[in-house]
Each structure stands twice: as structure tokens, then as C-alpha cells.
């Protein structure tokens, strides 16, 4: 029986021991290279684009010769106004991608020795940089679509006589959301969060290119897509896969990872941030065959290319 990729040595190309053994200077050089790959790590002014800068080595900052602005390697990025060392930042990214089903903020805070608030904001900033990979993306070819509901659990009363019918609208909490997924069999996994699965019809139509083949279950709202796409339908009451290749197993694989992430790692996810956790699971699915070293460099590069977070910068200070 073939060995699973995550169990092989090819999946383990970076460790915390290597990061901390290399030291702060090596971690700093890594972030410089990721920030300015076109100049092999040599600083470029983020304001005027000037290549001539002074190095202020005592504070690891630079000063532009043209506009006289002082800046650092993390200025204007997700990591702007950081307090952690560069070793700790790189270790945080490595720990974050090592969790194949995600990593909770409590666990991250214990491993890094920082406050829970610091770990929570950092994790969301990393998810925000993941989301940038999918901005404006579309899927094509053979595309599987499906929806699954998350959140809104109502705890039943202790005594049977006090229990209510939790299916009725008046007993709902209003926090239940559905995650819609459109996953190309040879491409990306796009996710959307809506209140009803039927709301995903228009979203799928806008993100699946013309000429694609869409595979879906027997839910009636997907019938509207047959006007513009060739479709394959699978009735899950009869089978999960047909001999002609009709199935939605790729979409179900994504939901399996997302459910384990929500239930096993985070236990509770606010509907306000459910889209970030869905994108996180999609990112892990799309890059599941890459080593943890490649994933660390990919995510750190995304973070250095992303602008300052408008949602999580100064989050606890409102």
C-alpha cells in the first residue's frame, strides 16, 4: 500500500528546530527576500519605489534617499507594527501550516508563549493573506458544487417536557450559515458563505467559466444552472459515485476537512468569520501535496505581499 504524502519525508522539509537554530538574522533575511524578491532582498521604498536607501542597522529599518521616509521590511504589510521577533513570526507561520485541520489560537498562544489575543489576531491575519490567493479567481473544466450548514446549534433542554422542535424558525438562533463550494477537479477550490444553499446558484454562475461541466447533487435549486452548463447529477440516496465519473467527492472532501477544523480544533466559529475558516480549509486542500517548508514560504510570501489589515489591525483596541 502506497504511503500517504503527509507521512513521507517529502512532506517534512522545515522544522522549528531549523528556524531557531538558523537564528534571527537568517529569519530576517528570509522576510526581506519574500518582501523584495525582484531585488533579491534589497530594500525598495514602499512609497516612491526608490532603490537607493540607507540601512539603519540598530533598528532594522531603512531610510529612503529620495523621499526620506523610514520603513521596515514589514511596513505596509499584514505584519505591520509587529512586536514579535522574526524567528517567532516565521515559527508562527510554520506552526500554522503544520496543522492539516487548522490550529486553534489557544494552541498557537501556548506554543509561541504569547497572549491568546496576539495568537488569535495573528491567525486571522494569516487567513486574510490566504484569501488574497482567491481574489477574482474562477474555476473551469469539471467543477463539483455543494453546500453544507455550519453553526446555529441549539442545545436541547434537560427534561423532555421542556424540549422544543429545533427545526422551527422561531427557535433558531439566527447564526446558522451555509458554506457553498465550487471545486475544480484539476484546479482551485472557491468558497462562499450565505444564509441558504439556494443563494449559491448565482455565485456559482459568476465564478464557473462557460463551457465547464458542473457536478451536483439532486437539490432542486441547482436545476437553474442547467440552462448555461452541461451538468452531471448524483443522487446520494442511491450512491456516492457513478461509473461514468459523476460524483461530488471532491467537494465532500473539502467539507470533511472544514468540519474537522470547526469541531475538532476551534469548537465554535462565529458566522462573522466563517468565510475565513472556509478559505483556510480550501487553501489547505489546494496545497495538500506541498511540503510544510513550501507552505511556510508560500504563506509568509502572501503575508508580505498583503496590505495592512483593515479588519484586524488594532482589533482589540477597536
**How many domains, in number, for the residues?**
2
Q: Got a strand count?
A: 8
What is the 3D shape? Answer: globular
- End-to-end Cα distance, whole Å, is 53 Å
Major beta sheet, strand line-up: 6-5-4-7-8
Specify the biggest β-sheet.
5 strands, mixed
What's the gist of this structure?
The chain is α/β, with parallel strands linked by helices.
Give the helices and strands, then pairings.
Blueprint: H1 16-22, H2 24-35, E1 53-56, E2 61-64, E3 70-71, H3 86-98, H4 105-112, H5 116-131, E4 142-150, E5 177-184, E6 189-194, H6 200-207, E7 213-217, E8 230-234, H7 249-266, H8 274-286, H9 292-305
Parallel strand pairs: 4-7, 7-8
Antiparallel strand pairs: 1-2, 2-3, 4-5, 5-6
How would you characterize the overall build of this protein?
By secondary structure, the protein is an alpha/beta fold. The chain folds into 2 domains: 5-133 and 294-317, no CATH class; 136-287, 2-Layer Sandwich (Nucleotidyltransferase, domain 5). It is built from 9 helices and 8 strands. It has helices spanning 16-22, 24-35, 86-98, 105-112, 116-131, 200-207, 249-266, 274-286, 292-305, and strands at 53-56, 61-64, 70-71, 142-150, 177-184, 189-194, 213-217, 230-234. The strands form 2 sheets. A 5-stranded mixed beta sheet has the order 6-5-4-7-8, sandwiched between helices. The chain has a 3-stranded antiparallel beta sheet with strand order 1-2-3, with no helix packed on it. A hairpin with a 5-residue loop joins strand 2 and strand 3. Helix 3 crosses helix 9 and helix 5 crosses helix 8. It is globular, with a radius of gyration of 23 Å. The mean pLDDT is 93.
Amino acid at each position: 500500500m502506497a504511503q500517504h504524502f503527509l507521512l513521507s519525508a517529502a512532506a517534512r522539509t522545515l522544522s522549528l528546530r531549523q528556524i531557531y537554530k538558523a537564528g534571527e538574522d537568517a529569519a530576517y533575511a528570509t522576510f526581506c527576500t519574500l518582501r523584495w524578491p525582484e531585488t533579491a532582498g534589497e530594500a525598495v521604498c514602499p512609497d516612491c519605489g526608490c532603490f537607493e536607501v540607507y540601512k539603519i542597522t540598530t533598528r532594522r529599518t531603512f531610510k529612503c534617499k529620495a523621499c526620506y521616509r523610514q520603513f521596515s521590511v514589514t511596513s505596509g504589510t499584514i505584519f505591520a507594527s509587529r512586536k514579535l521577533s522574526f524567528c517567532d513570526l516565521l515559527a508562527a507561520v510554520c506552526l500554522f501550516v503544520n496543522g492539516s485541520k487548522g490550529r486553534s489560537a489557544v494552541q498557537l498562544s501556548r506554543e509561541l508563549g504569547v497572549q491568546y489575543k496576539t495568537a488569535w489576531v495573528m491567525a486571522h491575519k494569516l487567513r486574510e493573506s490566504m484569501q488574497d490567493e482567491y481574489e477574482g479567481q474562477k474555476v473551469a473544466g469539471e467543477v463539483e458544487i455543494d453546500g453544507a450548514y455550519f453553526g446555529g446549534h441549539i442545545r436541547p433542554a434537560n427534561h423532555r417536557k421542556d424540549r422544543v422542535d429545533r427545526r422551527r424558525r422561531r427557535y433558531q438562533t439566527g447564526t446558522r450559515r451555509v458554506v457553498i463550494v465550487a471545486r475544480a477537479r484539476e484546479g482551485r477550490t472557491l468558497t462562499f458563505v450565505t444564509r441558504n444553499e439556494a443563494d449559491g446558484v448565482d455565485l456559482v454562475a459568476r465564478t464557473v467559466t462557460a463551457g465547464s461541466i458542473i457536478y451536483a447533487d439532486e437539490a432542486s435549486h441547482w436545476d437553474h444552472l442547467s440552462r448555461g452548463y452541461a451538468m452531471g447529477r448524483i443522487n446520494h440516496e442511491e450512491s456516492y459515485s457513478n461509473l461514468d465519473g459523476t460524483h461530488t467527492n471532491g467537494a465532500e472532501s473539502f467539507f470533511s476537512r472544514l468540519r474537522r477544523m470547526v469541531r475538532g480544533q476551534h469548537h465554535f466559529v462565529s458566522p462573522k468569520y466563517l468565510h475565513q475558516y472556509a478559505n483556510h480549509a480550501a487553501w489547505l486542500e489546494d496545497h495538500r501535496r506541498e511540503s510544510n517548508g513550501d507552505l511556510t514560504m508560500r504563506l509568509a510570501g502572501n503575508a508580505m505581499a498583503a496590505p495592512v489589515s483593515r479588519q484586524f489591525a488594532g482589533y482589540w483596541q477597536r
